[in-house]
Amino acid sequence: MNHKENKPEKSLLIGPELYSLPALQAAPLLLGQHLVRRTEDGEIRCRIVETESYGGVEDKGSHASGGRRTARTDVMFREGGTIYIYLIYGMYHCLNVVTAGEGDPHAVLIRAVEPLTAGDAGLMRSYRGAAARNPAGLSGGPGKLCRALRIDKSLNGLRLDNGDSPLRLEQGDEPKDLDIVQAPRINIPYAEEYARLPWRFYLRSNPYVSVKDKLEQPFIWN
Asked: Which CATH number fits domain 16-218: 3.20.20.140, 3.10.300.10, 3.40.50.40, 3.40.50.800?
């Protein structure tokens, strides 16, 4: 399989300022940023178009709710910029960006990405398989994007701010120039009073977004 790497003329890793923020502040700022995956077939570059915030020990939707620190959640307690990957339903991997300071378990779930070029889309489609019949089917959903990017638990605990990492984050669009909306997170009824908080953020009308909420609200920057 021949896939030419799509390296920009100038690429800059996301700086520590974003990773140091609480998840609720970091989640909209991650929209438009470039996720870069190095594979044996070449680099895949894509733009983040949907995120969910999981905001620390008080958030009943978080794996670290109440300060739970287990073998799985230990990565969430590390310094912001760490990769947190977990498995759901025994078959789907989910990619998270750990944020905030060490010992304060915040994470942003990456729910959807958009390939930057036709070459990126082609390689993602070859990994995703026949299920990728449309943009959302390719990488609209945490499990789908992980399959399309060959992301699994072998990347758990690595850093996104290391240029040599097989998975890294680089600067992309200016988030404040994007048309961002917010809505409740997906499939977390167990989160009780936190279940309906509008802590999911996505680009309005983007075809790669996993679920568009009829009650979406424009996101207003503070």
From this structure: 3.10.300.10
